[in-house]
Amino acid sequence: MRKTLTIVRWEYLTRIRSKWFIISTIIFPLIIAISMFMPGLLMTTAEDEAKIIGIIDETRVLMPQVEARLQEDYLLKNKTPKYQVLNLRMADLETAKQQAAALLDSAIIQAFLVIPADVWDSNRVYYYAKNIANYRDQGELDRTITRVVRSVKLKETGFPEQLVDQILKPIDFQVRKFTAGGEEQAASEMVAMLMPMLYVLMLFFAIFTSAQILMRSVLAERTNRLVEILLSSVTPRQLMSGKIIGLGLLGLTQLAIYLAMAIIASEYKGLELVNPTNVTLFLIYFILGYLVYAAIFGTLGSLFDNEQDAQSAVSIFSLICILPIMLSSYVISNPQSLVTVILSYIPIMTPFFMILRMGIFMPAWWEIISTIAILLLSVWFLMVAAGKVFRTAILIYGKRPTLPEIWQWIRRN
Fold this sequence. Notes:
- It is built from 17 helices and six strands.
- It has helices at residues 2-16, 19-44, 62-73, 93-105, 119-122, 135-156, 161-168, 189-223, 226-230, 236-269, 276-303, 307-326, 328-333, 338-343, 350-360, 365-393, 403-411, and strands spanning 51-57, 83-87, 111-115, 126-129, 176-178, 184-186.
- The strands form two sheets. A four-stranded mixed sheet has the order 2-1-3-4, sandwiched between helices. A two-stranded antiparallel ribbon has the order 5-6.
- Helix 6 (135-156) packs antiparallel against helix 7 (161-168) and helix 8 packs parallel to helix 11 (276-303).
């Protein structure tokens, strides 16, 4: 036991003092926060440059109302209208479109709209721009024209103008939720969508960082023949246990830093980003998930003679574990679907899917208990198998074992 603790202490202190560990631990949350929240903040920030929009109005009545509505609803930072409207009235539609295209090419206008004469029946308007991926401008123009067309239609049926404005006034749709104590509070749909992703990325980074360091450590000691010296003083079980525990503590340290940052952010923003139940389950799934991958990566480190071959094998598991991130949009929308539940019971993906689901909608306790039980059984089997493979393969050089040979090692008592 004393020798195992010595290895644990050496692995932990050596890695945690590394400048790359310190830099990655600090920079990773910043990169994730910037990549997840900055686009949304930029999209909601008021713009500071006016845009000229051309309008070809075949109805001859909608353009003034569209212009008035745009200048009233959308303002720049200096409170001036965001959109300036250019009336492109020509003898015929094709001539007007050619003129608008020329203005678009010369960057005099940023986009132009064609409102056909049958817009009342077709409900169709055409938008032209060089950058058709600008969803913000498209959405604002779409909402404005929709509101103006509906307003005209209602007024033509005899509705009073004041009543029409009340009918078409947008609903202030506020998202609310109840806290664990039953208190009602405002909620952000952006936070509700992004926080589960952030937790999964934290878990993914902590598990894979520690497990890959374990693999590289075993591989380096095996390649340099240092393992022969180590095994003259300790048993293979003590060596592997010390490495797994030491690097597991390294991952826990990273998670503790990340969770501390989340707690500080939640207190500063007044949001319930972290609660004791989630933190406890988060740590349980991390420990079990790490042990699963530590057994796999430690075995890979003992089987290969160079890091290039080992990384090729690791990439397969990396692709599998990216699956929860790829399916995050589906899981966030359907946390209790049959597909999501089934994926939650695949051991190498269980920690990621369960953490993702817990960030959205807490699963039933029987699901939490059963997935933890499956992970415990998987950890026991993989650790036993990894110990047998590690003990046999660590001193074999010049020959890569085949799958049948590895299976024989695992079956051996």
